[in-house]
Amino acid sequence: MPDRYTRRILDHIADRRYAPSTVQELVEELSIPEDQQDDFVSAIDELLEAKQVVRGTADTIALPPPGKDMIGTFRRHEKGFGFLVPDELTEHGDLFIPPGNVGDAMTGDKVKAKVIHEKGRGGGKSPYIGKIIEVLTRSDKQYSGTLLKKGSKYGVQVDGRIFNAPVLIRDVSAKNARPGDKVVIDLIQYPDDRGDGAVGVITEVLGEAGEPDVETLAVMRSAGLVERFPDDVMRQAREAARRLDDDIPADREDLTSEMICTIDPPDAKDYDDAISVTKLDGTKKGEPAWELGVHIADVAHYITPGSALDEEAYERANSTYLPRKVVPMLPEVLSNGVCSLMEGVNRFAKSCFITYDSLGNVLEQRFAKTVIRSAKRLTYIEAQALIEDDLRTAIKHCKAEQPKYSRALIQCLKRQDVLAKIIRKRRLGQGMIVLGLPAVDLVFDETGRVVDAQPEDDAFTHKIIEMFMVEANEAAARIFAELEVPMVRRVHADPDAHDMSDLKAFARVAGYNIPAKPSRMELQQLLESVRDKPAQHAVHMAVLKTLSKAEYSPELIGHFALASEHYTHFTSPIRRYPDFVVHRSLDVMLEHQQLKAGKKQPNAKQLGKALRDDERIPNEEQMREIGRHCSTKERNSESAERELRKYLVLELLSTKLGEDYPATVTGVTGQGIYLQIDQYLIDGFISLQDLPGAKFDRWQFNRNTGALVAQRSGRTITIGDRFPAARIASVDLARRQLELVIIDERQGRKLGQGKPKGKAKASGKPAKPAKTGKKPRREQGERDSKADGSNKPRRGRSDSAKKKAHARTIKLKKHRGRKRK
């Protein structure tokens, strides 16, 4: 299976830290197991034959040098430079476009650049830079922002930091927009290299800037997210919803009398997975055994391939979950109606049945088209309470109309609890990576504004559902792998060898040594060694940063974090199109498996060939394109969610100027530190020159320890260090920027000797939580913790009070500066 190594080889060689290596050296660098080295060498040979890599001196392997021109997608930085991401991985990796060479290209544009070789360009940097000579295709991106008026001219301050100046608007009257409105614009003249000179036209007025619903619409427009479905799509969805029949079709198993239930968040509206667990008499050896049933809404039954409804689902690719709003992949008449596995009604499903031995090893598996009837709709905390025989808590968190729980239901939940723990133990033994990072839920008032943040609940029922969904996804991928049928998979490549040096430094600071190329088990041991210790947050975050981004592809790469050789997405067809592809392929497989009169069941070889020849299942290249499209859409949705979440948190912090919060150092580099406000999980970067004491002392990065050291005072800053007071100095909502002032009194001593100031620009990336079931640190739930120990919250202050608080902060900084002088 050479394909499983192709991208990993290209990514490794394309890294700027790569030194040309021989094939044997690559085997060692990438820690290829001995029994897989033949496949690895075959992958190298295929890349050489395709001229995606070349042989250099001393028989080393490298990417071919770029040609005179390069075509790809442009990413623009606010400081005037950018990067061209080439269409082909064979072309030297990303090409740096320096300021002055960007022209009017914008992020997302397809561009053509001249490749320039700069002699003497070293320091680990590529000798090549680019100059954009043509914009081939515009991204047609819309921008949202606030309409401003200065003198007689109107401009739109676009949200974010792409534009240095407002976009000029010449005809404001066309849409009756007024200053202070949030508007959507199209560009008719693009900005120059400095980000100035853009001209736009207003296409939509959303409402008054700053209103939560308006800001939500603004993020949706910028991300190209459309809530409304076309008329023909809605017509087909309604027709599909009316096709529900209470009769049990002949080709479906009747499971309506089985004990099956759903467990979901309290605000869930679409229930696409249900669970049943049966304890069997035992295996052939007499040991106890279990049968897990994972029952998934059969969305494919209602949507005709190639229809307008199908094409719209493919275009959206996934549901987008914004704070307080969902932009669904499918019309709600399907997703919240006939396809939702509601309590007490018959629903069509695809069921995955997996039999386990007493240690959680898979004995056998099968898939079937079924009809189920969920006996109960439960929330996570409600189900956990029933497992623990806490009826009062269960009733408190019940969302169903009647909080009645049968003995059979409770027994089923307790069996789920036991089996999930058995499976989890097995997966941990296989090397599954479990990160313990804090996660918070935002708390909103009736107007939609954020008023607080609370740690996510840590009920083990989250783990129960997670384990069962992982098992079903793995079973679906395993079937198509055994049949040698291409399938869109959820792949998660092994960490890049180049990134392990950074992790090694993080671990060393925490007092742990790991090998230069740690295995999955060694990473797991590192994570466990710091769990529930002060270094946990920093080390677990460092491991997360070394992990690659999971995406969709037919390549046989496996899933590193889950320690899974074969993995796909099967369990959420209501909200993910790749699951939809898997369901349709299962339909074709089940059809070919049907016994016909006088004929035997086809064996694996016969079945695999039949499926590969069946045009209803996309071929490998089509699967690859589906994977690329769905991965792009997924990243877009995640970006929109982060953008809106960032705005809402910053809006809350704009009402708390002058207030102090505990913060944790999550990263240390030679340029500065990353600081995260614990309560809201919003990060900021503080450069060396803005660190406390930088005016009178020099902070220097120690590569051996991974710490910043003040040369005169000897004070240090390392990952995991906590500042009891990071003060909110200012918030720029339009540019999504946050400025913090470090007020540190660790052990009665101030950090550094200069001005007590550190500005942090919000990265806008609240830590993406890994749901581990571990309880977040206690301080994650604290509110408004002051340097003097007061915990009284200050809220709802007037604008004048905010200005006074800010003025006191500035005065305090000036006073301390004079005192030190």
UniProtKB/TrEMBL annotation:
<dbReference type="InterPro" id="IPR050180">
    <property type="entry name" value="RNR_Ribonuclease"/>
</dbReference>
<dbReference type="Pfam" id="PF08206">
    <property type="entry name" value="OB_RNB"/>
</dbReference>
<protein>
    <recommendedName>
        <fullName>Ribonuclease R</fullName>
        <ecNumber>3.1.13.1</ecNumber>
    </recommendedName>
</protein>
<comment type="function">
    <text>3'-5' exoribonuclease that releases 5'-nucleoside monophosphates and is involved in maturation of structured RNAs.</text>
</comment>
<dbReference type="GO" id="GO:0003723">
    <property type="term" value="F:RNA binding"/>
</dbReference>
<dbReference type="InterPro" id="IPR012340">
    <property type="entry name" value="NA-bd_OB-fold"/>
</dbReference>
<dbReference type="Pfam" id="PF17876">
    <property type="entry name" value="CSD2"/>
</dbReference>
<keyword id="KW-0963">Cytoplasm</keyword>
<dbReference type="Pfam" id="PF00773">
    <property type="entry name" value="RNB"/>
</dbReference>
<comment type="similarity">
    <text>Belongs to the RNR ribonuclease family. RNase R subfamily.</text>
</comment>
<dbReference type="InterPro" id="IPR011805">
    <property type="entry name" value="RNase_R"/>
</dbReference>
<dbReference type="GO" id="GO:0005829">
    <property type="term" value="C:cytosol"/>
</dbReference>
<dbReference type="GO" id="GO:0006402">
    <property type="term" value="P:mRNA catabolic process"/>
</dbReference>
<dbReference type="InterPro" id="IPR022966">
    <property type="entry name" value="RNase_II/R_CS"/>
</dbReference>
<feature type="region of interest" description="Disordered">
    <location>
        <begin position="749"/>
        <end position="821"/>
    </location>
</feature>
<dbReference type="GO" id="GO:0008859">
    <property type="term" value="F:exoribonuclease II activity"/>
</dbReference>
<keyword id="KW-0269">Exonuclease</keyword>
<keyword id="KW-0378">Hydrolase</keyword>
<feature type="compositionally biased region" description="Basic and acidic residues">
    <location>
        <begin position="778"/>
        <end position="802"/>
    </location>
</feature>
<dbReference type="InterPro" id="IPR040476">
    <property type="entry name" value="CSD2"/>
</dbReference>
<feature type="domain" description="RNB">
    <location>
        <begin position="252"/>
        <end position="592"/>
    </location>
</feature>
<keyword id="KW-0694">RNA-binding</keyword>
<keyword id="KW-0540">Nuclease</keyword>
<dbReference type="InterPro" id="IPR001900">
    <property type="entry name" value="RNase_II/R"/>
</dbReference>
<dbReference type="InterPro" id="IPR004476">
    <property type="entry name" value="RNase_II/RNase_R"/>
</dbReference>
<dbReference type="InterPro" id="IPR013223">
    <property type="entry name" value="RNase_B_OB_dom"/>
</dbReference>
<feature type="compositionally biased region" description="Basic residues">
    <location>
        <begin position="803"/>
        <end position="821"/>
    </location>
</feature>
